[in-house]
Design brief:
The protein is mostly helical and 639 residues long. It has 26 helices and two strands. The protein has a two-stranded antiparallel sheet. Helix 6 packs across helix 13, helix 11 runs antiparallel to helix 14 and helix 19 packs parallel to helix 22.
Length: 639
């Protein structure tokens, strides 16, 4: 065929099917051209809107074009949607902290066959005494219930101080040889959360946030209410796993929807309001348990409010940002008209021409992306891994500080009251979130995360090193130090460590949600939330091993804090920046200097806009990536 074309004097087509000099030729076929192969090739034009062609940059600029056209948060409907993402946070707070009541270790002693209460007359601590929080160690140094003589009992008598008359432990006598089943029951909810975050995150990127939210609500109602009907601890633990799985889908989809609804200047505060509402559930949980009195009633009361979320099928739409990023323009057009109608806006206010551009691209095929695509990137995978390690370290070392505050060996706790211990933990978490607001507002995401991680590392290293030194000097006869001095320092460092590590974990999750592109934001959130779940999982693991290896556990996480301090410097700054919509946008989210350049100072690295002046290749790449010329050092446009 090629030889025949050379004889006819026709040039060979190039690799992309075009013919050299075809631009100067008339659009019609040449005179005398038959129906040969060459004529057929010339007669086939390229499709006007192929899937490989670049999408309109205007449609990919959601924060700069689409969101202002819809009125931002000024629209009443958008504010209603944000409010609807806040309300379930209260129910989530109830579910997350229910283990402290359902699986609380009560005081217990043997009830003799004649109905008398053994040797305990109420003035002594019963031999099976355990701290009520489920987090801290035993409160006395009496022999444990593992002794065969103490566990040889026909009937146990319990005293539950968590506001309930009966819980899971007293229902099925999970003491002595069966005490390990309590830790397995605690594992089940956390492991369900971990797997739920990983799987529902990928599904949310593929089918959307709204279906994941609604199906998670349906199944948490099924599994959660069935938990209250459990007939043994095996059934309870299995159903709690599936309850945690569904709870993870609700948490992740609401977090993603909340982030994608907000303009850049309001994302952090709206997320923090949801955190405060979730903490309100933590503070109200003891009162709810005192009203319910029975663990089955408490479980049902915790789950039943999710029935209200079934209405979200009617009133809550899909994320418009996700629809635009995945190029589902037909559904996006319908949702835009729905939003403008509910906000009573006039489409003539579309100055930038979003709707006409949407009409041009409406025939484009959807383009969905899985989180595994991040492996082939240069910067994006690094940012996600760094934040996952930060989240794991923050939530993991938080348990170390909690154990140190209460004494990791069999010592007296700060208080003998379950509610005092519970509200101490909740109060520290609340103070941490309150401190995050001004710190992140002033220093930004990266600066705030770095500050809290430095505080965590200092508290950990001082607790491991300085307290051991104080302990050695306190043994000297002329030192003038007592063990009480060491305990006071330990308590102070533990409070600082819990305060800062909670901020590290929370801020890592939010930071990851901002720098992960919209097309894979569910998968990125799933990874960082699963890492946080692995950090929380260290608490029941240490309890199952009776706190063996506690010191090594703390040393490992202390080393991780030092590594995280270095890695945080590699992260970009996302404060007041547009959210990245696709993977190329996420790749342009590159690192900025920690301190801004002085006026007139030449930066060492050129920005993306400056590189365009030296190579024409960057112009075509920027157009294909949907990036406008007005970019910052992050490659994203500020508001």
């Amino acid at each position: 065929m090629a030889i025949e074309r050379r004889r006819e004097g026709r040039p060979l087509p190039e690799e992309n099917g075009s013919v050299p000099g075809a631009a100067a030729a008339p659009p019609g076929p040449p005179p005398g051209a038959g129906l040969g192969v060459g004529a057929e090739i010339q007669a086939v034009p390229p499709p006007p809107s192929s899937s490989s062609a670049a999408c309109s940059p205007l449609l990919l600029d959601y924060d700069g074009s689409v969101l202002p056209f819809l009125g931002g948060l000024g629209g009443g409907y958008q504010r209603t949607l944000v409010l609807l993402t806040w309300v379930p946070a209260l129910f989530i707070g109830f579910s997350k902290f229910s283990d402290s009541f359902l699986l609380d270790q009560p005081d217990f002693w043997c009830r003799q066959a004649d109905g008398q209460q053994g040797d305990w007359n109420g003035s002594l601590v019963p031999p099976g005494h355990a701290n009520r929080s489920g987090i801290f160690p035993t409160a006395t140094a009496l022999p444990g219930p593992g002794n065969a003589s103490e566990c040889d009992c026909h009937e146990w008598h319990y005293r539950i101080r968590a506001g309930l008359v009966q819980n899971v432990v007293s229902k099925w006598d999970l003491v002595c040889d069966s005490a390990w089943k309590v830790h397995i029951a605690k594992f089940s909810l956390l492991v369900g959360l971990i797997f739920g975050h990983l799987i529902t995150g990928c599904i949310a990127d593929w089918v959307g946030r709204r279906p994941v939210l609604l199906f998670s609500v349906i199944f948490i109602l099924v599994f959660g209410l069935t938990v209250a009907l459990s007939v043994n601890v095996t059934m309870f633990s299995t159903l709690r796993f599936f309850e945690g799985f569904c709870l993870a889908g609700i948490v992740l989809s609401l977090y993603a929807l909340r982030i994608e609804l907000c303009p850049p200047g309001h994302r952090f505060m709206i997320t923090m309001v949801a955190s405060f509402i979730e903490m309100a559930g933590q503070f109200l949980m003891p009162g709810l348990a005192a009203l319910c009195r029975d663990w089955q009633v408490l479980q049902a009361v915790i789950i039943c409010p999710f029935l209200l979320m079934l209405l979200y099928w009617v009133i809550f739409p899909e994320s418009l940002r996700w629809l635009m990023a995945t190029q589902q323009f037909e559904a996006s057009k319908e949702l835009i008209f729905q939003l403008t109608c509910k906000n009573r806006m006039n489409t003539e206010s579309d100055i930038k021409g979003v709707v006409p551009e949407l009409e041009k691209e409406i025939a484009r095929r959807p383009k969905k992306v899985c989180i595994v695509k991040v492996v082939g990137t240069r910067n994006l995978w690094k940012n996600i891994v760094v934040l996952c390690v930060n989240s794991l370290t923050g939530y993991g070392i938080h348990h170390c500080f909690a154990k140190s505050m209460m004494g990791h060996e069999a010592k007296m706790t700060i208080t003998h009251n379950f509610y005092a211990d519970y509200y101490t933990m909740a109060g520290i978490a609340l103070a941490s979130c309150l401190a995050m607001c001004p710190v992140v507002g002033f220093l930004g995401r990266r600066g705030g995360l770095l500050l809290f991680m430095i505080l965590t590392a200092l508290a950990s290293l001082l607790q491991l090193g300085l307290l051991n030194l104080i302990g050695k000097y306190s043994q000297l006869p002329d030192s003038g130090m007592s063990d009480s001095v060491k305990d006071k320092f330990s308590t102070a460092f533990s409070i600082v460590g819990m305060f800062s590590s909670h901020a590290v974990g929370s801020l890592s999750v939010f930071f990851c949600a901002e720098i992960t592109p919209t097309v894979i934001r569910g998968g990125g959130l799933g990874l960082v939330l699963a890492s946080a779940g692995f950090g929380r999982l260290t608490a029941p693991i240490m309890e199952l091993h009776n706190q063996k290896g506690y010191f090594l556990h703390h040393v490992i996480f202390a080393c991780c804090t030092l590594i995280c301090i270095i890695c945080i410097l590699l992260l970009p700054e996302s404060k007041n920046q547009n959210l990245p919509e696709n993977i190329p946008d996420g790749e342009h989210y590159t690192r900025q200097p920690l301190l801004p350049h002085k006026k007139g100072e030449q930066p060492l690295l050129l920005t993306n806009s400056e590189l365009k002046d030296y190579s024409g290749l960057h112009d075509s790449a920027a157009v294909s990536d949907g990036i406008s010329e007005n970019t910052t050092a992050n490659g994203m446009k500020p508001m």
